[in-house]
Write a structure and sequence with these properties.
This protein has 150 residues and is mostly helical. The protein has five helices and no strands. The chain has one domain.
Length: 150
């Protein structure tokens, strides 16, 4: 009985480790992205909207590379995977930008707070769609392949 439980425990441990890696990448990329956004806004003097676009575009490349290699350890074909990643990014960014615009122009929220609140829409949308649509098959392979255990 104990031997039968071992693969289940190994799989759960692997999922927990993978989720921890996802959180670490998300935190690092979020700090990086907000540093860019606020740097563009307060140092370069760009508008909140232009700062947001530039920060997210640079963060996009960083996020893909870290999630592909570190979080999901993907071996999928890069071109089609990145195309799916871009589609997910577009949807998540649209959710972010709509939230930002509404917070700024409808509710009059301070620009720095609006950036943070709009980021919540981005994070939730991005996580759910990336896990299911972009890296899902890589996730399944890494959890079930003996050579991929961490």
């Amino acid at each position: 009985m104990a031997a039968a439980r071992r693969p289940i425990l190994d799989q759960r441990t692997s999922k927990v480790k993978q989720f921890a890696r996802f959180l670490a990448v998300g935190i690092a990329n979020t700090v990086f992205g907000y540093a860019l956004i606020f740097g563009f806004m307060f140092i370069a003097g760009w508008s909140p909207e232009a700062s947001n676009i530039a920060g997210y575009l640079i963060g996009l490349v960083s996020s893909y590379l870290m999630n592909r290699s570190f979080t999901f350890r993907s071996t999928n074909e890069r071109k089609s995977e990145f195309a799916r990643f871009l589609a997910v990014f577009a949807i998540a960014f649209a959710a972010n930008f709509v939230a930002l615009w509404v917070l700024l122009h409808v509710f009059g929220v301070k620009d720095w707070l609006a950036q943070i609140l709009a980021g919540v829409a981005y994070v939730a949308t991005s996580y759910l769609l990336n896990r299911a649509f972009v890296f899902g098959s890589a996730l399944d392979r890494s959890l079930h392949s003996p050579q991929r255990r961490t």
